[in-house]
Amino acid sequence: MNLPSFFRGRRGILLGLLLVVLGFAAAGGWAHAQRSRVIAYTPPRPPGLEGEVALSERLSAAERRARSWFRPVAGLSELGRLYHANGHPAPAALCYTGLRDLKPREALWPHLLASLLAGAGRLDDALPLWRDAVRLDPTYVPARLRLGDVLLKSNQPLEARRIYDEVLKQSADQPYALLGLARCHLAAGDWTRAREVLLRAQERHPDFVGTLTLLVSVHEHFGDAEAAKAVRAAIGMREFHDLRDPWVDSLLEECYDPYRVSVGAAVATYSGEPDTAVHLLERAIELAPREGTYQRQLGKLHYQLKQHEAARRHLERAVALSPDDADAWSLLVDLLNTLGDDAAMQRALSAGLNHCPNSAALRFANGSRLSKLGRVGEAIAELKRAQRLKPDEVRPSIELALLYFRQERIDDGIAELRQALVAEPGHPLALSILTRHAIETGDEAQARQGLSQLRGLHRLAPGDLATLVNDYRGRFRRDPW
Fold first, then answer.
1. All structural domains of the chain
2. Considering the entire predicted model, what is its pTM?
3. How many CB atoms lie within 10 A of CB 382?
4. Mind listing the pLDDT tens digit of every residue in the chain (481 residues)?
5. Which of 392-398's residues contact partners 24+ apart within 8 Å by CB, and which partners?
């Protein structure tokens, strides 16, 4: 036997084993250090969560993972998202602070932490975090826009403008960036350039309430009352919805509050993401299966998407769960009328009125039904009752006007159309009929005023306005403007 070779072989094996042992020891030491750091950032459980069983179980599982030897960072991440999504900002902020320390190259964590702090009004603390998020991921537009908004609110309009300009270089028609840019011009006192930006934004996004609301103020500043009035009419009952932020919006998947989930669905609907809205409403129903409100919201969404069978299923479930929900009954009646199921529609209308006798929408539906059946007196009584129940609703006045015209009660019909304009200034049908009546009766001043108002409406087809203008020229032998 060659002893030196023998010992060399054994020595090599022993050295290899020693290196493996040292490797495991180093890995174990690193894992221990990482676990210790995670545990240091793992918050204590806030009081009052004992009754929220599903959420409490998720939190317990995430806490165990955060304290385990395997993937503790993933456990801390889940904890932070759960606390954030369910309205517990303090423990969520501690988790995110730890994740920034543990994952310093990820933009997600400063962005989520900044969102939490900004929501609590701590803009000065949020500002450097959004700077950090933009530095780490320059392509994530919501972080850039948030940074611009905070800079503007912090009286730094020049830097904010640079941020908005950078976003607009990537996406020339980004509505929130255009809105921010207009606000920067206003902060600098440049109302003319602000108006130019807002008109450009209105052209690209005619339904964006943020732009329209600011444009009203700008038109009023320039003394253009008619333009301001037209923009107000375009806004109508719509509300401003905040910027879609996928990193923050994804927290809804971790939310156990069905109301918050349903609000997220409404924002997704407005933003043109119906599939996301359907998914979120289905989650809200899963969280609150005995609550009719979310069934009604999902039924309405399916109805808007022309998915009539799904809409009917959810609306019927909604009225079964919440028989005093007048909106659900009204939607169901309207849907059944659209489907042509007259027998089911009449049953639903009767049941709805039985449960909700003071529903203006159901009284209007009943009045319209009676009018079609030729039961004029009963129809007028129901439509009048609908008016009294909801004076700012325009549909009963329009229906009454058309009913009076069919009976050749012209003066009564005209009075109802004027009432419709009180309920909804700038209603295109009411204004068009009144303008035509003024032309036919030779009331040039009233006709010209009506045409001027119609000209500023975005909801009127250009062909309808052209027809009225031609009729005006034929009657008065001149142009209206």
1. 35-42+56-235 (1.25.40.10), 257-357 (1.25.40.10)
2. 0.80
3. 24
4. 454 554 456 666 656 655 554 454 444 455 566 688 888 889 988 887 877 899 999 999 999 999 998 889 999 999 999 999 999 999 999 999 999 999 999 999 999 999 999 999 999 999 999 999 999 999 999 999 999 999 999 999 999 999 999 999 999 999 999 999 999 999 999 999 999 999 999 999 998 999 999 999 999 999 999 899 889 878 877 788 888 899 999 999 999 999 999 999 998 998 889 999 999 999 999 999 999 999 999 999 999 999 999 999 999 999 999 999 999 999 999 999 999 999 999 999 999 999 999 999 999 999 999 999 999 999 999 999 999 999 999 999 999 999 999 999 999 999 999 999 999 988 999 999 999 999 999 999 999 999 999 987 767 777 899 999 999 999 999 999 8
5. 392/423, 392/424, 393/360, 393/361, 393/364, 393/423, 394/420, 394/423, 394/424, 394/427, 394/430, 395/364, 396/360, 396/363, 396/364, 396/367, 397/423, 397/430, 398/427, 398/429, 398/430
